[in-house]
Design goal:
This protein has 141 residues and is of the alpha/beta class. Helices cover 50% and strands 13% of the residues. It has a 5-stranded parallel sheet. Helix 1 packs across helix 2 and helix 6 packs across helix 7. It is globular, with a radius of gyration of 15 Å.
């Protein structure tokens, strides 16, 4: 069984903003990651912030995003419908923006969420890995 890793937006942002261990894990681990289609709007929402913080030009940002998503499978929004209500029960009162990530983890068998956001720690329905856990997970492959 291979654990399926769903990336939170903060992981994508981290990988774009600087050439970090996060980017290295996504590019070099050989692992396929997952990202909910619905959450692309959050990447777009933070685009100006990312450009300012990273120093990237818009074209560099687009190219880096395309390169990252060669290692990431998109989970279509329609596939999350069956898990949406349960996901809302689990996380909506903690952070409503993360319903989509819990729904993705509930939809895909053997899944965990990679996120450094502490609010995921306030639920126990879905396994959550921090970046330090991901480094250990990848080393142990």
């Amino acid at each position: 069984m291979q654990l399926k890793i769903i990336l939170d937006v903060n992981i994508i942002l981290s990988a774009i903003i600087k050439d970090s261990i996060t980017r290295k894990v996504i590019f070099e681990s050989g692992h396929t990651f997952y990202f909910p289609e619905y959450a692309f709007q959050k990447i777009e929402k933070y685009k100006d912030y990312i450009l300012a913080k990273s120093g990237l030009e818009a074209e560099e940002f687009s190219n880096l995003l395309k390169s990252l998503f060669k290692h990431i499978e998109i989970i279509s929004t329609g596939n999350l419908a069956d898990s949406w209500e349960k996901s809302m029960d689990i996380i909506e009162k903690i952070d409503s923006e993360d319903v989509v990530f819990i729904a993705a983890a509930l939809t895909i068998q053997d899944a965990a969420i990679w996120s450094d956001d502490n609010h995921f720690d306030k639920q126990n329905a879905v396994k959550v890995l921090k970046t330090k856990d991901m480094i250990e997970f990848i080393k142990g492959k």
